[in-house]
Amino acid sequence: MAVTLREVAAHAGVSIATASRALSGRRKVSPEIVARVVAAAEQLGYRPNAVAQALREQTTRTVGMVVPSITLPFFPEIVQAVEYELQRSGRELILCDAQYDPRVEERRLRVLVERKVDGLIISPCDMERSRPAVVEAAKAVPLVQLDRYVEGGVSDWVGVDDEIGIGLAVEHVIAGGAKRLAFVGSELTNSSARLRLAAFERGARAGGVQVTDVLLGEFSAAWGQRAAELICTGGRIPDAVICGNDEIAIGMLRGLRAHGLRVPDDVAVTGFDDIGYAELSDPPLTTVRQPREQLAREALRVLAEARTSPGLRRIAVAPQLVVRGTTRPEK
User: Fold this and answer.
1) What is the model's pTM?
2) DSSP letter (8 states) at residue 126
3) Would you identify the CATH topology of the domain 5-48?
4) SS3 of 237, please?
5) Which pLDDT value is given to residue 55?
6) Could you count the other beta carbons within 10 Å of the beta carbon of residue 216?
C-alpha cells in the first residue's frame, strides 16, 4: 500500500500540517524540521498525490512548451535549458512538437490548456498563421513567446536581439575585408527569418558593401548546400555569406567545398545560434551565440510575472559573436 502523509508525520514526530508545509515549501518551517520530514519521506518511500496536491494548490506545477520542430538543433537545446530551470523549482515540462504545421500547433496548444498547465511557452512556427491559436491560448493561461513571435503583440515575448546579432556578423566580415556579401536564410514565414534578413540589409547598407544574392529557403543544411550551388553557378561569388542559422551555414560549407572554394580564404561564412555542431564543423563555424540558459531563465521569470501582473513585456537578450575558423581576421 502507498505510504500516507500521516505515516510520514508520525515517523518524523510532527503534525500532519507541519509535514505538509515542510514538503511543499510554501510556508516557513525550520530547517531542522524540514530535514526530519524529508528524511522520513525518503525512508518510507512517500510519494505525494499529485492530483490532490493540484486541487489544493490550484496548480499542476507543469509548464507546457510548443516548438516548431524538435528536429532543428536549436530547439532541443533551448528545451533542455527550460527543463533544467523548471526542475530547480520542482516543476515539470510537457513538450510538444508542432511539426512546422500551424494546424498541429493549434491542437497541441488546445491539449495543453485542457491539461491545466500553469503556463505556456511557445515558439510559433508561422508569424501569421499561428496567430489565432496563440491568441486563444493566451486568453486561457499565461503565455510567453520564446525566440519567435506572431504579429500583433498578443503576449509577452523573450528572445535574442536578431538585429544586433546579424549586425555583429556583418560588421565582422566587412572588417575582415569583405566587399561583396550574400545572405542565405529562410522564407519569411517567421519573425526570426524576417528580422535577420532586415538586419542584414541594414548592415550591408551601413557598411557600403555590395549585396550579390539574397536566397531564401528553409532553416536546414540541405538548403544551405543547395544555396551554395546556386551561388557558385550564378557567376557572382561573394566575399562572405551571412547565413540565417547554423544549419544553413554548415550546408553552405559543404557546398562551397564541393565547388572547390576555400573557407575562409575564398569565401567567409557565418551562422547564427551556436548549436553544438558549430564548433565541430570544418572549419569550426564563426557564429552568433544565443544565450540559451539566459533565455530560459527570462522566459520563466516573465511567465511567473504574467500570473500576477498581466501585460505585454518584450525582453530582448543580447547575443554574442563567436569567432572561429570560417571568417578572416579583422584588419
Assistant:
1) 0.82
2) -
3) 434 Repressor (Amino-terminal Domain) (1.10.260)
4) coil
5) 43
6) 16
